[in-house]
């Protein structure tokens, strides 16, 4: 597939628009806090727990130490993991695929404790606990 000059200019324009929102000029792994610290061209630093990023969630500290920044500053790459992360997505709070993020939110929500949840659990326990599931055809 041939790329026309017009297509190339349009792609460069889209990349420039993304860069204006902020791009990485530095990146490091902070062992003490287990966070990826990204320095942006806007003099802002963003620190994100590595376990919150799908591509990095199971990685060891040793694997997270080496980070490369793409020439555009829009991507981060971990060679030991062969993992890429898109900086604009991180800045928008998108840390993985929709499925992975939904699973993370669901796991967090299920752990939430509240007075109402505790009362409901006690009431359910008095009634014999959770009802058994019945098979249906």
What features would you describe in this structure?
InterPro entries: DUF2442. This is DUF2442 domain-containing protein. The chain has helices at about 5-20, 60-65, 85-90, 100-110, 115-125, and strands at about 25-30, 35-40, 45-50, 70, 75-80, 85. It is of the alpha+beta class and about 140 residues long. The chain has a domain at about 10-95: Uncharacterised protein PF10387, DUF2442 (NE0471 N-terminal domain-like, 2-Layer Sandwich), CATH 3.30.2020. The strands form 2 sheets. A 3-stranded antiparallel sheet has the order 1-2-3, with no helix packed on it. Strands 4-5-6 form a 3-stranded antiparallel sheet. The radius of gyration is 22 Å and the shape is elongated. The protein starts with a helix and ends in an 11-residue tail after the last helix.
How many DSSP-defined strands? 6
Tell me what the CATH architecture of the domain at 9-96 is: 2-Layer Sandwich
Secondary-structure class: alpha+beta
What is the mean predicted local confidence, pLDDT? 83
Report the biggest beta sheet as strand number plus sense, adding barrel if it closes. 3 strands, antiparallel
CATH topology of the domain at 9-96: NE0471 N-terminal domain-like
Question: What would CATH call the class of the domain at 9-96?
Answer: Alpha Beta
Shape: elongated
Give the name of the CATH superfamily of the domain at 9-96.
Answer: Uncharacterised protein PF10387, DUF2442
Q: What does the radius of gyration come to?
A: 22 Å
Cα(first) to Cα(last) distance is 52 Å
Q: Major sheet: order of its strands?
A: 1-2-3
Element order: H for helix, E for strand: HEEEHEEEHHH
Approximate helicity band? 25-40%
Biased composition (Basic residues): 127-137
InterPro entries: DUF2442
Pfam family, one: DUF2442
Region (Disordered): 118-137
